[in-house]
Amino acid sequence: MNVQQIVEAVLFASDAPLTAEEISRADEVLDEEQVEEAIQQLRAEYDDGARSFQLVELAEGHQILTRPEFAPYLERFDNVPRPTRLSGPALETLAIIAYRQPIGRLEMEYVRGVGVSGVVRTLQERNLIEVVGRAEGLGRPLLYGTTQHFLEHFGFRSLEDLPRPEELPILLRERIPLGLDDDAPEAEVSEPEELGGQAEMAFEPEDEVFDEDGAEETIP
Amino acid sequence: MDLTVTQRAPAGRTAERDDFFLVEIDRFQGPLDLLLHLIRTQDIDVFDIPISRITEQFLKAIKGLAATDLDGAGEFLEMAATLIRIKAQMLLPRPAEDEEEDPRAELVRRLLEYEQIREVTLRLRAAEADRGRRFGKGYVPPRRKRTALDAPLETTWDEVYEAALLVEMPPARRVDHRVTTRPVSMEEKAVLILSYLKKGTKIRFSELLVNFKERSHGVMTFLAGLELTRRRVLFLRQSRPFTELWLYRRDDANDDDAPPEDLVPEGGDA
To answer: Does the structure's ipTM exceed the value 0.90?
Structure first.
């Protein structure tokens, strides 16, 4: 038995993504590097061999999943509870949490302009978000962040896979920034940094530090 | 947003220029969504919102909301108040060289951010659908076992009836719920333990149970042991799980005498 076979066996038997570290536990002599290498080989093998499945990088791990083109056949076995699609408000709230985590409920509500308590509960029940801490300040509100399952549900490898703000086609941003004179240089048009940079900042996934003062400011 | 009141365009007016705000309000996720709609459909420059016009349209669109859904209406009314406040601020004269922010700036920030969130939501929706077309292990359900229900029934009603006659009904039993007092107290057991430990420095747990058959004695003796451990009167030692438990008197001499590494301490204070 070679490394590749062992790795394949572990991946085959798993119904959730596994990290290289987790796979390497299959044998004392395995290290992560070997596993990673075996994974690359297996991936290439599956792709070249016209298999109906692929080795997919997912939620900071690897999982064997069927190729999308076989969905119509598999969907016929639809007597299993299928993962239901999220509602519009749920997705909207989840989007806010994903980009601004850790984030409290008041802040989510300010961004959406709508109450979120019901939606937050649903997202928590579905294990897409979790409480990750408490903010300083009045009432020490709970802060939420996305879970591993969130990555799995959307097929993301990590939070880095979230669409980056600069690649979003935002129609409104193409206007002249507020506060500039009409004869402002053309170059500034697509860079509305004059808005205090806050709209930009909000979409930095790496924005780890919860700026309490900033949060207070935005909540009337 | 679950707002039940809808603003419908009265027949015959639909062609008029200002009908864009005669929208079904429950189509919108909230006040920001409605504002975005008003701005987009009129091709308004978001960095120069005609606040007076938008406010008027917004108020018209939410007219009649308040009575039905206070929660939902509250969010729209709050936005209406914000719009009116901005409108008022715009009317106040500002010095030409004033460095102060445009009163609309915060609203614009929110709208831009909200629009981004809407865009991200679409991306998430697409990602979710893509992921939904891939399946992992365990998706296809296991083959259903043939159950007894599937086998054709070869019994006649007569047979069933006969069998039924043979069944003896169990005598009706009255089940009373019995409330019993605790036959044994923890204090009693603590006294017992201490009396043993007066004679010697240690005692087997099982020895304490000699002559007591009921389980409650064992439970109470154990609880008493834990309690005395907590009070630092004694400590418990057990070399391995499920082996004999020893109760040691805790003397001054014993106090610093931590149990050896291979012993599993019980009671948390050893």
So the answer is: no
